[in-house]
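Give me C-alpha cells for this 272-residue protein.
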Amino acid sequence: MSRIQQCLEQLASQRRKALIPFVTAGDPAVELTVPLMHAMVKAGADVIELGVPFSDPMADGPTIQRASERALAKGVTLRGVLAMVAEFRKTDNNTPVVLMGYANPVEAMGVQAFANAANSGGVDGVLIVDYPPEECEDFAKILKENKIDPIFLLAPTSSEARMAQVGRIGSGYVYYVSLKGVTGAGNLDHAEVGRRIPGIRDRVGMPVGVGFGIRDSESAARIAEVADAVVIGSRIIEEIENSPVDEVLNRVSAFLSGVRAAMDARTQEAAT
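Here you go.
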C-alpha cells in the first residue's frame, strides 16, 4: 500500500478529509522549501504537492506562473526538486509528497531515470499536467514499478472514456479541476462540484481531491463536505508572495491551520 493510499484510508476511517497544499519548489527561496514543507505538515497538511518550476506552465494562472519564474531564476531544476524531497525525507518518512509539473523536464531527464530518481528520493505520486491519460499507459506502468502513484486530472468536461482510463491506470487519488480555466480562477460552484463528485468517484474507484478556486477556510470546508481531499495552491502562493521572507513560514502555517480547523469542524458536523 502506498503512503498516499494509507494516508487517505486512515483519514477516511476518522471521517476526516485530506488537506493538500501546493507550493512551488524553490519559491520564495531554495533553502526555505524543505522548512516550508515541514511547517505545512505541522499546520495540518496531509499530503504535499510540490510544483516543479517550468517556463511555460499552461494550466497555471499568473500567481503560480510568477512562482515558477522566481524559482527558475534561482536555478531550480527537476533534479534539484528531487533533492529537496530527499532532504525532507530525512526527518519525515510519513507525509506523502506528490510532484506536480510538466512533461518537458521529465522527458529531458528520461522517463525511466526520472522514475528511478523519484523513487530513491521518496516521491509518492506524480502528476504531469500535459500527459493525457490516453497516452500514458507506459508512463503509469513505469511509475507503479517504482512504487509511485500516477495521478491524473479530471475536469467538468472530461468524458466517460477519460474517466474510465484514469480509473484503469491511475492510483492514489484523482485531482478534479473544479473550474474551467487556469489555477487561481474564481467563481467556484460548490453545489455543482457536490453533484459531480459521487459519479466521478464511482467511475475511477479511488478518492477524489478537488482543486482550483479554493480561496479560504469557508470554501475549503464546503468542498470537504463532498470531496475526499481539498487542494489549495494559488492562495498559498499569494501568501508567500506578499510576505517578507522571514515571515513566510508563520503566515502560511497560520493560513493552513485555519483551513484545517474549518475542514475538520465541517466534516464533524456532517458526521453527527
